[in-house]
UniProtKB/TrEMBL annotation:
InterPro entries: DNA/RNA_pol_sf, DNA_pol_Y-fam_lit_finger_sf, Rev_trsase/Diguanyl_cyclase, UmuC. Residues 16-262 form the UmuC domain. GO terms for molecular function: damaged DNA binding; DNA-directed DNA polymerase activity. PANTHER family: DNA POLYMERASE IOTA. The lineage of its organism: Eukaryota, Fungi, Dikarya, Ascomycota, Pezizomycotina. It comes from the Eukaryota. One of its GO terms (biological process) is error-free translesion synthesis. This is UmuC domain-containing protein. It comes from Friedmanniomyces endolithicus.
Amino acid sequence: MDTDRTPPARKDGRVIIHFDYDCFYASVFEKENPALKSLPFAVQQKQIIVTCNYEARRRGLHKLQLIRDARRICPDVVIELGEDISRFRDASKELYNFLKGFSWSRKVERLGFDEVWLDVSDIVDYNMQTLNRHGLVQCFFQTSRSDPMEGFSFDASTIAGHPYPQKYKHVNVAGAVDDLTLRMHLGSHLAQHMRHQLEQQKGYTSTVGIATTKLLSKLVGNLNKPKGQTTIMPPLTDSTDGPGNLQTFLDDHEIGKIPGIGFKLSQKLRDFILERPAAFDTGLIYGGTKEHVTVADVRGNSKVSPETLEKLLSGPGSPHGIGHKVWCLLHGADDTEVSEAKAVPSQISIEDSYIRLDTLPDVLQELDALARSLITRMRIDLLVHEEDASKEEDLRPGDLEQIFTQVTSKKWLAHPKTLRLTTRPRSPLQPDGTRIRSFKRISHSAPLPNFVFGLSESVESLADRLVREALLPMYRKLHPEKSGWNLSLVNLAVTNMAETAGESKTARGRDIGNMFRRQDDVLKDFQIREASPSPAEDSELEAQVVPGVGWDDDVEHGDDDLECCGDCGTRMPAFAMVAHRRFHLPALSAAQGHFT
């Protein structure tokens, strides 16, 4: 059996910055009421503290603490309810758009509400070319490709913020310095500039990590919280001079703290290394382990190789090659790209957790609340004014009254095609009265009814209809039994986004719909016009569908099941629209030829 334990190849040419907003939920409230900054302050969801500021932490409070325990430990704590997450979504979107303004490549990826990655390799490369290596102390960092005067002065011989390791020595100005070291210097100064601008202009502090991979940048930032930044410096890999900084940094991390190794995988790894089931801490609300199995414990085990990891971790739902992926993560090798900023999210998801949810009336009530939140979120994230379709990132999601007025001028950036319902049932009680912890989720997906895109009905009316016509049948497929279930979580999501033809930009930013609207004016002096068709001919043309594409006559198609083509206005079922849009491709190619 092949048990090749060769460390994976590395690519360390990138400069990636990871932002983590400090105490984000609490900071949103503090932005609205600055007086909270000097008080012990916490945000509550259900009966749990989901976050608290550092003054509260100084007095003994922490995340996932029961409210009753928090009040006992710190009687003067100020607590705000945070179950309505709209304010957090809105703040997150505002800060994301602010950071995106610093990017040249649009490689800006958001993780949750409070984390953002930026790949700034291109900006660093540009400034490396203009750097005077004989005068590193007095340098200028250009932050605009088009304006050489826009930027800031900095000392390229030093690291901005904290280096890892702490004993790292700054560059001798007169001496030679390798490119990777200098690139990390530049990346750290850019990160510091962005961090300061975020605080000065938006009022939010952040903790930042700078590294050559997404994995390392996320982890290394945790070393100096809050309001700090850390850069992991070369040499990253082992050499004749000693171990590399990368493995030294990673080895002490508990295996469950490594991004990409989730709860289930980490439990399998702990069980394998300990040769017994890892013990849970029953006092933790959301589960945890009493065991401490580190990256070094797993990576250094002679039985661990990509092949053994594949056998150990593969199974239903696991991606192919999971063993090799985890092997790479154990060695700090992560080639994952920072995703480009997208106007349209890949999915919109709403969920809530429960102490007890075990009756159908209660389930229906929660489904209705989640459906209202989901539809509201769809309108915020996917609806834009007709005249502002090219500026969807400038929409103010907090101003709901403004968003939902002038309905006739709104259009959808994308239509989600799939509705997904997910639940997390609790395990049944054991004979001794205890319950085995379960984090298993079950899901059911179905086509998203087209009526949810209607803007003439209220959110409440659409949510009620969505529950009755779609979610309740989906729920019964997940839980066919009439009773006996008890849910700890329910999630609703819309996925499989189809960008609206003629309305959204292509990946390169061209607005196809606007191009067609302008082509008559641009080409008016070069067109040969034929006689207009008669009304009868015009009606016949509008009724045509692409040859060979049709639907069964015995299937009834109501108005809610039809889609409207953004190019010609033809209405037809959703399954026929994809093929119909190909009918316009020759015209699109011709139009593009005229404009190039």
